[in-house]
Amino acid sequence: EKWTQGLLGIKWKQKKQKIEEFLKAAKAPKLQYNNGVKPIISLIKKLLKDSNVNVNGLSLQMLLALSKGLRRNFTSHAKSLTSLVLQKLKEKKIQVRQPAKDVLQSFYTYCYSLEDVADDYKAVIKEKHPEVNVRTMKIIEKYFLKNRQDRSKIEIVYNSLMKAFKSKLDSADPTVRSTALSLIGEIQALL
Question: Model pTM?
């Protein structure tokens, strides 16, 4: 907890150094869950709201390491952080956007099923940001392709997100329309 408190009030280079130390320690294939995770999660939430994109990117890398290391033990935290991470898809800077995609994919690979957070995804798809719509639908597409053997999982997620996908068929942006149409077609082929 002292470590997390000390990280907030320091300059960018010192934050970077401390976060990199954390990332090095969190590289273990399987981490032990304990009460020390909660202060780290609250620190990450604060760092994600930092105006420095480098801090945002590193905090997303911290989330990635925790989700890969803690796996199912990280489920409740992953669910609570999904909407915040989805908002990072709006970022123009690749050093934030790419780790956000990686974190979301890690969440549904190790921590939960997409049906657990379908409402968060639906809310982002309904927004009027074409780039975010496309990025979000691409993440969902990867989820479907990864789980193509499990028809019941695909069907549940598809049914909960179908209206959001169909609403994007009327989008003014041609990329959003084509991505939505492609996604709907791919999913129906899997079913």
Answer: 0.89
Among 27, 82, 73, 19, which Cα is nearest to 47's? Answer: 19
Would you say 55 and 8 are in contact if contact means Cβ atoms under 8 Å apart? no
Burial of 28 (0-12, 13-18, 19+ CB in 10 A): exposed
Residue 127 dihedral angles phi and psi, to the nearest 5°: -65, 160
| Predicted local confidence at residue 3, as pLDDT | 61
Identify which of 155, 59, 83, 170 has the alpha carbon closest to the alpha carbon of residue 115.
155
CB of 122 closer than 8 Å to CB of 129:
no
Render pLDDT for 4-40 as a digit per residue (tens, 0 to 9).
Answer: 666 777 787 888 888 888 888 887 767 778 777 888 8
